[in-house]
Inverse folding.
């Protein structure tokens, strides 16, 4: 299928998007007001201290509000039925002019079904929910603090080179507990700034009842998780990040929802559908979760308003959309391999409703917020995913290249390194065990001291850990993503407390104490990560055109490529060093070493002279007009498992 054949498909998709956008613009005061429905749905105190409550429950027979404010009377405060399945309740102020529902008090929606059931529900628009220690069910808390947090700092501008630090607030501490927003603000943000990352991607913020779900079984979409602290503390975290020049992205889960009923969206109005498809189409075959009906007007209201809520209320700068592959196809990617054949991406197996939702989301976000960043977690390789909406694309800025970390793990298990060019891709280094643990395993427990010589396992592992990060940074795509802890070679693995591990927090933490102990080699790996990011900030290879790979020598285990004004030279051979190695160069001139993984500061052996100048010659080599011999009089320029970067 040629690109000319694809044009009708792209035009067709754009037509569907344009039709839906026109409906949004013509109804309810335009898409700006429509996507701010969080201002009128849920629970709100108005300027005169009266209260407005509004819900969408099309299958309900009657709806009531109960809570602390009325002594938990189940029938005293009925909602009035409105058009299109909406229900509304207005409460005047008390006699002393205070609001009828006080800040931090508990509420419940009572739904009476046509079948005679009485259901106790949390509003889908609830902005704060908490779980008592004596219960497994979350409570809806009306959050209306007398002194809400006021932002002090402007948003940073979108960077040319995106260097993302992916983080989970709850594990961001060496202690065996759930860490807090405040801990992250005061103890983790300074580390991220020092490392040179200009963007943070926060996971597991949207409230999820099951901690071990890693935040991907969302129960309350408008609630910041209370297990880490209050909404105001999250706002402060983001504001302080902005003061450091760091953007903050939310890992948003609009691909599915938890099956929980009493504290989730499932069966909110007693029906099998409401926010979701009814029947089998509304259930994910693998994730045991519910699937949204993106063709529903009220579901579009809910999800698009949810995106704006996180930006307007909390100050987030964009989103990583989770589970995009599942959204794009009726088969959800389950049991389907993607070879790159266009027929796999265009046809009846594509879910056009969810595709149009993603196009709408990207269009609205980029129209309203100039510097908003959107990233798609897609493993299928859907063409046009990161093309503008007006071209029939989905409009994402980046696609997360999940295959890159997977390929690294395969290589470490006995595969090989495959050099490919990828576009619009931040990349992560994560796996079941951490990257460092795959490389060094149990030797990390006894041999990471810098006060003793490295044994062969630690030596090779430390050098490869640096090389893998830099090769991915330089060749992986147009952005770089690091999961917290990988910057210093975090040992072991990640596992949340659950029944299977006796509810242990031992592996649900990040041991920053290791990098703070300066006689351990974790500090050396940390400093390399810092200087790698700072070097990129200076030379900007992530924002440059795709790399030109001039050497992929299987026998020598040498990889050489150019990107921007930088030449990257890698020797992966476990035993061989090379002298007089000819390097192809596009731009003639003098080159010097700017980043060297063999530097003593990074746990290397210090075998390279950083004062050496390297001059190109007009000798064509590997399809480049110029070349240079790298330090021909130094017989051990390339030592086992090291690399260096040579900017012009």
């Amino acid at each position: 299928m040629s690109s000319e054949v694809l044009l009708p498909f792209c035009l067709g998709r754009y037509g569907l998007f344009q039709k839906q956008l026109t409906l949004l613009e013509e109804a309810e005061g335009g898409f700006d007001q429509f996507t701010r429905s969080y201002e009128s749905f849920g629970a709100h105190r108005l300027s005169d201290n009266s209260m407005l409550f509004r819900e969408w429950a099309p299958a309900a027979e009657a709806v009531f509000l109960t809570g602390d404010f009325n002594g938990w009377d189940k029938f005293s405060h009925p909602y009035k039925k409105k058009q299109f399945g909406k229900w509304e309740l207005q409460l005047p102020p008390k006699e002393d002019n205070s609001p009828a529902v006080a800040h931090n008090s508990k509420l419940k929606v009572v739904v009476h079904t046509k079948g005679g059931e009485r259901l106790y529900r949390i509003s889908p628009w609830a902005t704060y929910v908490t779980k008592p220690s004596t219960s497994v069910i979350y409570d809806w808390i009306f959050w209306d603090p007398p002194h809400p947090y006021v932002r002090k700092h402007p948003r940073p501008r979108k960077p040319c080179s995106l260097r993302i630090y992916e983080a989970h607030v709850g594990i961001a501490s060496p202690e065996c507990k759930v860490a807090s927003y405040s801990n992250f603000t005061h103890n983790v943000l300074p580390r991220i700034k020092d490392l040179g990352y200009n963007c943070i991607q926060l996971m597991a913020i949207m409230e999820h009842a099951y901690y071990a779900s890693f935040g991907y079984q969302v129960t309350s979409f408008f609630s910041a998780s209370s297990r880490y602290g209050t909404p105001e503390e999250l706002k402060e975290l983001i504001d302080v990040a902005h003061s450091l020049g760091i953007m903050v992205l939310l890992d948003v889960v609009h691909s599915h929802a938890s099956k929980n009923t009493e504290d989730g969206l499932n069966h909110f109005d007693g029906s099998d559908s409401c926010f979701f498809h009814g029947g089998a189409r509304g259930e994910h075959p693998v994730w045991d979760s519910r699937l949204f009906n993106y063709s529903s007007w009220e579901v579009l209201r809910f999800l698009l308003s949810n995106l704006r809520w996180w930006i307007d209320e909390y100050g987030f700068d964009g989103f990583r959309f989770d589970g995009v592959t599942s959204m794009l196809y009726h088969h959800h990617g389950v049991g389907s391999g993607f070879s790159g054949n266009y027929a796999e991406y265009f046809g009846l197996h594509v879910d056009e409703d969810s595709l149009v939702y993603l196009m709408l989301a990207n269009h609205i976000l980029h129209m309203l917020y100039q510097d908003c960043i959107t990233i798609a977690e897609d493993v299928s390789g859907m063409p046009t995913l990161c093309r503008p909406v007006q071209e029939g694309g989905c409009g994402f800025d980046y696609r997360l290249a999940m295959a890159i970390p997977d390929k690294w793990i395969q290589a470490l298990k006995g595969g090989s390194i495959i050099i490919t060019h990828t576009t619009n891709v931040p990349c992560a280094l994560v796996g079941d065990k951490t990257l460092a643990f795959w490389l060094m395993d149990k030797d990390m427990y006894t041999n990471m001291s810098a006060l003793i010589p490295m044994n062969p396992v630690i030596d090779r592992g430390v050098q490869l850990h640096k090389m893998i990060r830099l090769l991915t940074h330089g060749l992986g795509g147009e952005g770089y993503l690091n999961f917290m802890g990988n910057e210093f070679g975090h040992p072991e693995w990640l596992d949340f407390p659950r029944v299977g591990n006796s509810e242990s927090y031992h592996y649900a933490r990040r041991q920053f104490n290791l990098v703070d102990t300066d006689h351990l080699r974790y500090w050396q790996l940390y400093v390399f990560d810092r200087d790698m990011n700072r070097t990129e900030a200076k030379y900007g290879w992530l924002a440059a055109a795709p790399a030109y790979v001039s050497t992929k020598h299987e026998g020598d285990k040498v990889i050489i490529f150019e990107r921007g004004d930088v030449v990257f030279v890698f020797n992966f051979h476990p035993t061989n060093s090379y002298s007089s190695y000819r390097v192809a160069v596009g731009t003639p001139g003098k080159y010097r070493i700017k980043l060297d993984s063999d530097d003593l500061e990074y746990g290397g052996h210090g075998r390279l002279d950083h004062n050496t100048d390297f001059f190109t010659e007009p000798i064509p080599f590997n399809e480049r007009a110029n070349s240079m011999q790298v330090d021909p009089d130094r017989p051990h320029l390339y030592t086992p498992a090291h690399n260096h970067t040579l900017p012009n």
Q: What stands out?
A: Residues 420-431, 632-648 have pLDDT under 50 and may be disordered. The radius of gyration is 27 Å.
